[in-house]
């Protein structure tokens, strides 16, 4: 299990864009499972949407990608690199994420070649699938 401080040693994201609170399972270069506790004080809720707060889908995708990034960047030889989006395919949103939800994200690396890779990620609230997609990424030096 990785705490927020330990996650920040692996990926470069920081508040307000660090969207993973902890990693609860990790198999470097294979798979990671992360948690995001969605609170009513998230800055994006101010405008999305007043009176009916909904976590933006693009931020759910970003959180899923960050969990995959931890799996990819955890090995010492990858520390300091940045995983950048190269593409997103087969994305589906199935349920809204709102304050009070605990988002559980599962990311599995499908293919890694040199500085390019592909991962499949899903996110859940209370065991119910809320989003899924395939992410292409490129590793680059910071």
TrEMBL record:
- Catalytic residues, per the record, are 48
Q: Where in the cell is it found?
A: Cytoplasm
If you read the UniProt record, what top EC class would you report for this enzyme, in one word?
Answer: lyase
Keywords carried by this UniProt record: Cytoplasm, Lipid A biosynthesis, Lipid biosynthesis, Lipid metabolism, Lyase
Give the Enzyme Commission number. 4.2.1.59
Q: Which reaction does it catalyse?
A: a (3R)-hydroxyacyl-[ACP] = a (2E)-enoyl-[ACP] + H2O
Q: Does the keyword Lyase apply?
A: yes
Q: SUPFAM superfamilies from the xrefs?
A: Thioesterase/thiol ester dehydrase-isomerase (SSF54637)
According to its UniProt entry, the protein's GO biological process terms are:
fatty acid biosynthetic process; lipid A biosynthetic process
Q: Which Gene3D superfamilies match?
A: Hotdog Thioesterase
> For this protein, what is any one GO molecular function term?
(3R)-hydroxyacyl-[acyl-carrier-protein] dehydratase activity
The principal localisation class reads cytoplasm
Q: Which domain of life is it from?
A: Bacteria
Note whether Cell wall biogenesis/degradation occurs among the keywords. no
Give a Gene Ontology cellular component term annotated to this protein.
membrane
Which PANTHER family does the annotation name?
A: 3-HYDROXYACYL-[ACYL-CARRIER-PROTEIN] DEHYDRATASE
Give a short account of what the protein does: Involved in unsaturated fatty acids biosynthesis. Catalyzes the dehydration of short chain beta-hydroxyacyl-ACPs and long chain saturated and unsaturated beta-hydroxyacyl-ACPs.
By sequence similarity, the record places it as follows: Belongs to the thioester dehydratase family. FabZ subfamily.
What this protein is called in its record is 3-hydroxyacyl-[acyl-carrier-protein] dehydratase FabZ
